[in-house]
Amino acid sequence: MRDSLYPIARELYAEHGVDTEAVLSQLASVAVSLHCWQGDDVGGFEGDGLTGGGIQATGNYPGKARTPGELRQDLEKALSLIPGKHRLNLHACYADFSGGKVDRDALEVKHFQSWIDWCKTQGLGMDFNPTYFSHPLANDGATLTHADEGVRAFWIRHGIACREIGAEMGRQLGSATVTNVWIPDGSKDLPVDRKGPRQRLEASLDEIFRKELPTEHHLDAVESKLFGIGSESYVVGSNEFYLGYAVSRSKLVCLDAGHFHPTESVADKISSVLQFVPEILLHVSRGVRWDSDHVVILDDPTKAIMEELVRGGFLGRTHIGLDFFDASINRVAAWVIGTRSTLKALLLALLEPAAKLRGLEAEGDFTSRLAILEEIKSLPFGAVWDEYCRRQDTPVGEDWLREVKRYESDVLSKR
Ligand code: RNT
Ligand code: ZN
Q1: Could you list the active site residues?
Q2: Domain coordinates of the chain in residue numbers?
């Protein structure tokens, strides 16, 4: 029954001048970077179970991955239920220490080789993140901005090591790795010196980025934030700080959907930022009242972001990554729901009758522009989505949920 709907949907979209076949092949060309940290509540595999730095997952749903092997198994299950070819976004605290543990400033490619090999077999590109939290030297709430030169130097070495690892990931996989810097540095209460830590952050980043790496293998991104747990009054790496830094050094800006005032539009930032930096990284997320990192759903902010990427012709300059972590529901399902919703938002944007809307706007017919924007909301986009899932050999509708439930009873419940 469901598959008979697509030809009708194709006709209806064609009446608006939209070629659904072209849209389906465009959608298939977009990769979303799945964040490893949804699989174990941002725990990592360093074994000391430390948390801190404003990264906090809530919930205790059973079955979380405890080893690189388990995390890969879970990711394989999730990826099999998501249409398209995607990427893996790995944090440095997920190193594979089967050959012996080292501290973060001594990480090498060999600690990530099993991840790279796995990505190769899965046909996935890879993105990377230094981990500046969950570590004894991050307990003061300062890393790259620490006033102690020894601590700051440790984190600089970590940053340098991670760029080398990222570049090698990109080289081996034949697709540039985006290595994203996010630090938790800030203060709970009102600081007197806001300037010093920012000067130190600029100096630390310049040291980390000193070595030029080939852009066909590696790209650097920096991620700002408004506030965090323990950094309510001051975040060193604010939006203004990183925007200035990225513009002056030609780095990528990472826009995390949960890192701005709740009434700000992240979608609106895209065309401003891309006017001055070469590319952006997105952390698609869902903040509920604050930076809560809820699982992404097909909501208005996510739709608006994807509309901007399509309307502005920005897809080729945007790296779409996910950033949420919910420990209160099945973690494989969380990946599937969040990624499928992100792709649905992108599909909706691609299905927009762009030429028609632009024409109306150019003519100054804002009445028709608003009318059409409202009318297209009730076109049968679900039938096009179902067709996409079918063609990509992934479950249609909620059929994927049955598969996740089976995996839960066969695998997750035995952990
Ligand atoms: C934290 C940032 C950051 C992290 C990941 C784990 O507020 O959003 O991107 O979520 O690095
Ligand atoms: Zn983020």
Answers
A1: 182, 223, 225, 256, 259, 283, 291, 293, 323
A2: 31-352
